[in-house]
Amino acid sequence: MNLFLMGLSVAGAESIRAENRILKSLSVKPAVVTKGPLVSVIIPAYNEERYLPALLTSLGNQSYSPIEVIVVDNLSDDNTIKVAKEFGAKVMVNPTPANVNKSRNIGASAARGEYLAFIDADTIPESNAILNSVTALQNGADLVYTNKCSTDDHLISIARVIVGWLDPVNHTATGCYLMTNRDVFNSVSGFDESLNPMTSRQEDGKALTARLVESGYNVVMLKGTYVGTSARRFHAEGYSTSSLWQERSIRALRR
C-alpha cells in the first residue's frame, strides 16, 4: 500500500511538472531555435475555435524551425477557419464531411515537409516537442510519440502519466501527437480511413503504429517529452466529472 501511495505521489509530481512545462509554451518563446528540415504539422479540426488558439500559440513558441501548419477543417460552423488563418496556418476544407483519419490523410497529401506531425486541435506540445521528435527521427526512429498529461483535469493527468510509464512495451500511441517521416507514412498508406475514433472508440494512432511495427519500423516513445491534451472526451462520455484545473490552457492565454 505504501508503494502504491508513493507511486501516486511521484506520478502527481511528474504531472505537475509536465503541465507547467506545457503551459509555459503558451507564453515563453525559446531563447534558441534549432533549424532543420521542414516539419508539416497537420491538425484535423471541427468546431475547434475554443481550443485551437492554444495549440497554434504553442507551435509558434517551439524551439525548432521551420514548421508548416495545416488545419484541415471538417465543415465547421464556428470560427475555426478564421482562427487558423489569423495564426497564419494553411487551411484546407473538406468538400464533404470526413472522419478524422481521412482529414489527416488529406492534410498529409498537401504537406511539403520531410517530416509529418499529426496533432489534435485540443493538444498542446511543450516547446521542445518538435525538436525532440525530429532529433529522434534523425537517429533511427521511424515514428515517435510522447508522454501525455492533461491540460484541464489533474486526476486524468496523473493517470496518463502512469499509463505512459507502462506504455512503451505496447506501442499504444494515440492520434493526439505523433510524428513520422513522409516516406514511412506513405509506405503504409497513411491512416486507416475505415476507422473513426470519434464515433467507434477505435484507436487510430494505435492502429497506425501496429502496422508500422508489423512492417519492421522502429516506433519510439519520447519518455521525457510531454504534450497536454484535453480530457473533454472523458467528461462528455461520463468517464470523469472532475475538472480541478478546468481549461487552464484557455485561461493562460487570457492573462
What does this structure look like?
- With 255 residues, the chain is α/β, with parallel strands linked by helices.
- It has one domain: Alpha-Beta Complex (Spore Coat Polysaccharide Biosynthesis Protein SpsA, Chain A).
- Helices cover 41% and strands 23% of the residues.
- The protein contains 11 helices and 8 strands.
- The chain has an 8-stranded mixed sheet, with helices on both faces.
- Strand 2, helix 3 and strand 3 form a beta-alpha-beta unit.
- Helix 1 crosses helix 6.
- The radius of gyration is 17 Å and the shape is globular.
- 47% of the residues are buried.
Radius of gyration: 17 Å
Number of strands: 8
- The proportion of residues in beta strands is 15-25%
Helix content: 40-55%
What is the 3D form?
globular
CATH homologous superfamily title: Spore Coat Polysaccharide Biosynthesis Protein SpsA, Chain A
What order do the strands of the largest sheet run in, or round the barrel if closed? Answer: 3-2-1-4-7-6-8-5
Number of helices: 11
Structural classification: alpha/beta
What is the CATH topology classification name?
A: Spore Coat Polysaccharide Biosynthesis Protein SpsA, Chain A
Counted up, domains total: 1
N/C terminus separation: 41 Å
Give start-end ranges of low-pLDDT stretches. Answer: 234-246
Named CATH architecture: Alpha-Beta Complex
pLDDT averaged residue by residue: 85
Provide the succession of SSEs: HEHEHEHEEHEHEHHHEHH
